[in-house]
Design brief:
Layout lengths: L10 E5 L10 E4 L28 E4 L12 H6 L23 E10 L8 E8 L3 H7 L3 E4 L3 E5 L1 E4 L2 E6 L4 E4 L14 H7 L2 E9 L4
Parallel strand pairs: 2-8
Antiparallel strand pairs: 1-7, 3-6, 4-5, 4-9, 5-11, 9-10
Length: about 210
């Protein structure tokens, strides 16, 4: 998961993180277990920050607990594929791991191509291994800049969709900790913990078509 940096990335001041509007944005797919962060080099340095611009103070943020679901819902969660352009990430039912939630299974959701299907496919991968590092990483607070004013790299980052299942069969769509630029790669322990797990089973299902 090393990120090559052959040249500095361009800096942009945002109120918000509406990075997808940039024509030169670099798409970063984090859904594959072996490639959670960016491998692309950045554009030439073109600082656009006014000399008088001062980013807002950064505070810690922990989202409300994720809503309990009856089962893992990969198709529905990929309809709302989280990226660092989402001003309201995480949205319900995604959220932090509820207190007392004992994890028995972990799943990763990502899109998959189904040649014979009329709807997009969804790949649901069950992971196995030591879940303790992942739970520890998910418990790390996110960073938030006051008024969403921050100097951010011009990169669109798509975040993994992580589902946790407890011993009762209840499932939660867990939010990943992010930086003030809404980048999960800036909190690398989550990606390291995911990469340390192995795929025990893969199921391909049809998406919702949304």
């Amino acid at each position: 998961m090393d990120t090559s940096r052959t040249s500095p990335r361009s800096l942009r001041t945002t109120p918000a993180f509406r990075l997808p509007l940039l024509a030169s944005v670099a798409l970063v797919s984090s859904l594959a277990l072996g490639g959670c962060t960016s491998n692309s080099s950045g554009p030439e340095t073109t600082s656009e920050a006014p000399a008088t611009f001062k980013p807002g103070p950064v505070t810690e943020f922990v989202p409300p607990p994720a809503e309990l679901q009856k089962a893992v819902a990969c198709p529905a969660s990929t309809d709302d594929l989280p990226t660092n352009s989402d001003m309201d990430y995480p949205k319900e039912p995604r959220g932090s791991v509820p207190e007392g939630f004992v994890v028995e299974k972990v799943f990763i959701c990502r899109t998959a191509d189904l040649e014979s299907a009329t709807k997009p496919g969804v790949k649901q991968e069950e992971l196995q291994g030591d879940f303790a590092p992942l739970l520890k990483a998910l418990a790390v607070p996110s960073d938030r800049a006051e008024g969403n004013q921050a100097v951010c790299n011009a990169i669109l980052e798509m975040m993994p969709i992580v589902w946790l299942v407890n011993t009762n069969g209840d499932a939660v769509d867990a939010a990943l900790p992010t930086t003030e630029c809404r980048q999960a790669s800036g909190k690398p322990d989550t990606h390291k913990a995911i990469d340390a797990l192995t795929v025990a089973n893969t199921t391909i299902v049809q998406g919702t078509g949304k």
